[in-house]
């Protein structure tokens, strides 16, 4: 009888262990369904891609994060995918006082996850060239959700260097 109770207890405990929630990787968080963009995961993903192509890593920059967020939010507010929805990148950098010696920007819309946005950029020659820009060391990335728009999620990636050339 003890053996039967022990087996039942082990089976019950095994069933509990099997029900533990599986944490989803940050790159698959669905922005359109309440997911949050993880900029550290984005920097890691882009850095690995750059390193696989013989380039240096990039780190998250708080000022570039603010600029990327403002650009994504402006696109979402206007329901318009456009680099210049507020102003060209160089003007936005100058207006913020960011000391960029070089900078590039990718924008996109309609991708719900970081993995989708990254894949879209990687598969587009001009966007890929930006991610593989030699000499950039910092990034800001943002995704803004707007339920009443065609694309739902608007993305901005700004990569820059503030180091003297």
UniProtKB/TrEMBL annotation:
Which residues, if any, are the signal sequence? 1-17
Report the PROSITE patterns cross-referenced here. PROKAR_LIPOPROTEIN
Organism's domain of life? Answer: Bacteria
- InterPro entries this protein is in? CAP_dom, CAP_sf
Please provide an example of a Pfam family that matches this protein in its UniProt record: CAP
Q: Where is the SCP domain?
A: 46-157
Keywords on record: Signal
Task: Please state what the protein is called.
Answer: Cysteine-rich secretory protein family protein
Q: What is the scientific name of the source organism?
A: Bradyrhizobium erythrophlei
């Amino acid at each position: 009888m003890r053996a039967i109770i022990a087996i039942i207890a082990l089976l019950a405990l095994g069933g509990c262990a099997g029900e533990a929630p599986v944490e989803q990787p940050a790159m698959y968080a669905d922005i359109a369904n309440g997911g949050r963009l993880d900029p550290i995961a984005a920097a890691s993903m882009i850095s690995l891609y750059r390193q696989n192509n013989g380039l240096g890593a990039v780190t998250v920059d708080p000022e570039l994060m603010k600029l990327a967020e403002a650009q994504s939010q402006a696109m979402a507010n206007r329901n318009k995918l456009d680099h210049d929805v507020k102003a060209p990148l160089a003007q936005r950098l100058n207006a913020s006082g960011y000391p960029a010696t070089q900078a590039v920007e990718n924008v996109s819309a309609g991708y719900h996850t970081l993995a989708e946005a990254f894949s879209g950029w990687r598969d587009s020659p001009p966007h890929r060239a930006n991610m593989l820009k030699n000499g950039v060391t910092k990034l800001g990335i943002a995704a803004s959700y707007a339920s009443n728009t065609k694309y739902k999620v608007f993305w901005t990636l700004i990569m820059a260097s503030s180091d003297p050339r």
